[in-house]
């Protein structure tokens, strides 16, 4: 009776869930097909229109209107605008829009704001929103940065869009099939089939008319399961809008139901067979006295599941229980061996990962024994063998020092791997001499890709110009650092932090700056410091950290970190460490002497530059002979700039910058102008035997080389940059000191 009732209940249950099984099976079959078609349509569409931007990217000048018009004729003559850095339309196919500004809330304004500050060739291709597509009010935008804040936007309306895309869309579904009778389709907005499968072209027995497709698309909203009768056959279908087209996937309902009926039949048979076996077995076991044996086994199993794997089960009154006991004992024994082996293997893997991670972090102190402008120390103590915190510091050149502290949102090996990826990427970008906000922006986008574990990073990242004492930094969701000005106490920097890294693509990061003076100290840390707990589970906290830093007056970066570590150990008093503890301290020991002056490129202004250089050289302890030689060099360079650099301009400029490094006893004097390119180092040596016949200017260049320890030239950002290096003589060192 029980078996019959269970069978009836099972049949009723199966009848009730059959529609759900059908819908689930249809979605499982058709959804991947539909997603694949959608991706191919969007990819092929963007690939076509990405080619548009490559037609207009030049390195030195904007494309002219005639060239733009001739190129876009091939693309169906879409509308286009070229907008300068001030938001003014400077070229367009609509002449009435030239010399007008773009509206702040317009699509053109949005793309201009997004791309005007990006590098040449940066591009954005818009998608077609489903709601706009279904209303028929849509456009496709291709925007590209032409450099110097200029952005070009090409706007494709439906006719010009389809002129480019219909051809390539035709082949997407040619050989795609779904089950035995189903297929995938790409359909135009008017219901016409753009890309039918190959069997629709060849098999005359399967044909879907345009009216059938219009009926299909009008019967339900996108991404819902519908049933429709086409040519006498009932089909299950789903569709969605795909960047200007409808992607449709259909399959015969009979084919779906056949699979469901087979599954149900097999399940029912297996269930019936199982019920018969269970019934017979239970009937047999009920005749025996088994309660005591089962109770004994359960009692011993409870000990095993509680963690005592040394328990042995000894119930052998009959063959069945003897086999059960032996089987359980064998399983437990095997489990013990497996746990021991896995534990040993896992510990070895953790030790290896810890060694890799430790070797990746700078751990030799002092790291720069030959430099005295920066003192730095850092440490990382993981909560597990392998942690998610990391730090780094390095020089990108002689005057730019990079340092950071970061915390990955997870722990263990996955966090360590993510940490290594983030650390390597940020260091690579920093060594390319990018700004702090650009480095973190690019790293954020790259780390968002393939981030299936949804990990993120909080970090404090800074670049210190040791020559000027300017610190540029980004705080991406990280703990507030503390700063101690020379002679003062440690206080928190209280600005609002940006969003974390690797959580969302294309978010902006705010670059901030600090002016550091000699003796200023910066202390960075992760939340493992402030969230350390004592035996009563009370947090260490920000106030205690500040008090610990100000309680002593350590003289070095190492002593600062070690003082905090001692206070943390004392506070924790043996409590379990719950998070990685990372800290970094950097002391700025003073910048180089650096000054600059800019004057209009006229003869009457040159005395300002000569006086400026005399004052700087005297202040730096140079002897009279060296100062005289530098005066000769300055006179030759500045006179040439005034007389020759600006032949077609009336308002040129000369900038002279002076930098002195007391460590190397070298002064760098840099002359910069915006005139025509001229490299004096390419001038030939003068022929002193025939000096009267020598080329004009050759003697001046000779004197510049003769009186300098090093001469460097480059033409960058439309500027001539001439750098003169002059070494101070040792006898004058005491004057500067």
Would you give an account of this structure?
Helix 1 packs antiparallel against helix 8. By secondary structure, the chain is an alpha+beta fold. 42% of the residues lie in helices and 22% in strands. Strands 6, 7, 8, 9, 10 and 11 form a 6-stranded antiparallel β-sheet that branches. Strands 2-1-5-4-3 form a 5-stranded antiparallel β-sheet, with helices on both faces. The longest helix has 53 residues. It starts with a helix and ends with a helix. The C terminus is likely disordered.
Present the secondary structure layout.
Layout: H1 2-54, H2 65-74, E1 79-83, E2 89-92, H3 107-115, E3 123-125, H4 130-135, E4 140-147, E5 150-156, H5 158-169, E6 177-178, E7 182-187, E8 193-195, H6 198-202, H7 210-218, E9 226-230, E10 233-241, E11 246-252, H8 253-285, H9 291-305, H10 319-360, E12 374-381, E13 389-395, E14 400-408, H11 412-430, H12 436-448, E15 457-465, E16 470-476, E17 482-484, E18 490-492, E19 512-515, E20 520-525, H13 527-530, H14 542-551, H15 557-572, E21 581-588, E22 593-600, H16 606-619, H17 624-645, E23 653-661, E24 666-673, H18 698-707, E25 710-716, E26 719-727, H19 733-736
Antiparallel strand pairs: 1-2, 1-5, 3-4, 4-5, 6-7, 7-8, 7-11, 9-10, 10-11, 12-21, 13-14, 14-15, 15-16, 16-19, 17-18, 17-20, 20-21, 22-23, 23-24, 24-26, 25-26
Helix pairs in contact: 1-5, 1-8, 10-11, 11-12, 16-17, 17-18
């Amino acid at each position: 009776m029980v078996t019959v009732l269970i069978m009836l209940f099972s049949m009723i249950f199966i009848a009730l869930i059959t529609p759900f099984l059908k819908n689930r099976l249809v979605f499982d079959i058709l959804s991947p097909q539909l997603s694949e078609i959608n991706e191919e349509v969007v990819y092929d569409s963007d690939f076509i229109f990405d080619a548009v931007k490559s037609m207009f990217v030049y390195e030195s000048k904007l494309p002219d209107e005639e060239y733009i018009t001739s190129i876009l004729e091939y693309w169906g003559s879409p509308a286009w605008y070229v907008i300068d850095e001030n938001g003014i339309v400077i070229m367009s196919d609509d002449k009435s829009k030239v010399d007008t500004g773009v509206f702040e809330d317009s699509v053109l304004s949005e793309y201009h704001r997004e791309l005007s500050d990006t590098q040449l060739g940066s591009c954005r291709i818009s998608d077609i929103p489903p709601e706009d597509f279904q209303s028929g009010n849509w456009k496709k935008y291709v925007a590209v940065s032409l450099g110097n804040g200029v952005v070009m936007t090409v706007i494709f309306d439906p006719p010009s869009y389809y002129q480019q895309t219909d051809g390539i869309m035709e082949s997407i579904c040619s050989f795609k099939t779904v089950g035995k009778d189903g297929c995938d389709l790409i359909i135009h907005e008017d219901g016409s089939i753009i890309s039918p499968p190959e069997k629709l072209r060849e098999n005359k027995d399967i044909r879907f008319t345009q009216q059938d497709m219009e009926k299909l698309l009008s019967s339900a909203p996108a991404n819902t399961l519908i049933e429709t009768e086409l040519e006498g056959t009932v089909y299950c279908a789903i569709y969605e809008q795909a960047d200007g087209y409808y992607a449709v996937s259909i399959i015969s309902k009979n084919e779906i139901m056949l699979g469901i009926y087979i599954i149900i039949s097999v399940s029912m048979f297996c269930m019936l067979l199982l019920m018969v076996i269970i019934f017979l077995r239970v009937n047999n076991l009920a005749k025996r006295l088994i309660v005591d044996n089962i109770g004994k086994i359960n009692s011993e199993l409870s000990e095993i599941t509680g963690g005592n794997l040394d328990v042995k089960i000894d119930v052998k009154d009959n063959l069945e229980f003897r086999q059960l006991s032996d089987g359980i004992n064998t399983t437990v024994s095997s489990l013990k061996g497996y746990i021991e082996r896995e534990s040993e293997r896992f510990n070895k893997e953790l030790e290896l990962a810890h060694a890799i991670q430790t070797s990746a972090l700078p751990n030799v102190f002092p790291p720069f024994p030959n430099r005295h402008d920066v003192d730095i120390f850092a440490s990382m103590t993981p909560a597990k063998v392998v942690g998610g915190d990391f730090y780094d510091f390095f020089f990108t050149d002689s005057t730019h020092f990079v340092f950071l502290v970061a915390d990955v949102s997870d722990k263990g090996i996955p966090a360590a791997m993510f940490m290594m990826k983030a650390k390597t990427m940020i260091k690579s970008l920093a060594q390319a001499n990018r700004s702090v906000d650009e480095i973190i922006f690019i790293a954020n986008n790259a780390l968002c890709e393939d981030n299936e574990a949804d990990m993120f990073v909080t970090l404090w990242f800074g670049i210190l110009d040791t020559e000027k004492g300017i610190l540029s930094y980004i705080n991406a969701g990280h703990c507030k650092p503390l700063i101690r000005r020379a002679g003062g106490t440690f206080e928190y920097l209280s600005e609002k932090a940006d969003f974390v890294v690797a959580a969302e693509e294309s978010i902006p990061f705010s670059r901030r700056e600090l002016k550091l003076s000699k003796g200023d100290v910066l202390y960075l840390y992760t939340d493992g410091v402030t969230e350390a707990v004592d035996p009563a589970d009370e947090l260490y906290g920000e106030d205690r950290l500040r008090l610990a830093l100000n309680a002593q007056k350590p003289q070095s970066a190492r002593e600062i970190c070690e003082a905090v570590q001692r206070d943390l150990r004392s506070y924790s008093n043996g409590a379990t460490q719950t998070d990685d503890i990372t800290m970094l301290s950097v002391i700025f020991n003073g910048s180089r002497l650096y000054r600059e002056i800019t004057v209009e490129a006229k003869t009457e202004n040159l005395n300002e530059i000569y006086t400026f250089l005399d004052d700087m050289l005297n202040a730096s302890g140079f002897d009279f002979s060296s100062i005289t030689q530098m005066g000769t060099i300055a006179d030759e360079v500045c006179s040439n700039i005034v007389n020759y650099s600006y032949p077609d301009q009336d308002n040129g400029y000369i900038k002279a910058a002076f930098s002195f490094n007391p460590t190397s006893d070298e002064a760098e004097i840099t002359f910069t102008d915006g005139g025509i390119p001229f490299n004096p180092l390419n001038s030939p040596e003068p022929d002193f035997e025939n000096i009267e016949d020598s080329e004009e200017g050759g003697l001046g260049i000779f004197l510049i080389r003769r009186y300098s320890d090093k001469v460097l030239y480059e033409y960058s950002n439309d500027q001539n940059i001439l750098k003169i290096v002059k070494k101070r003589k040792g006898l004058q060192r005491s004057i500067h000191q």
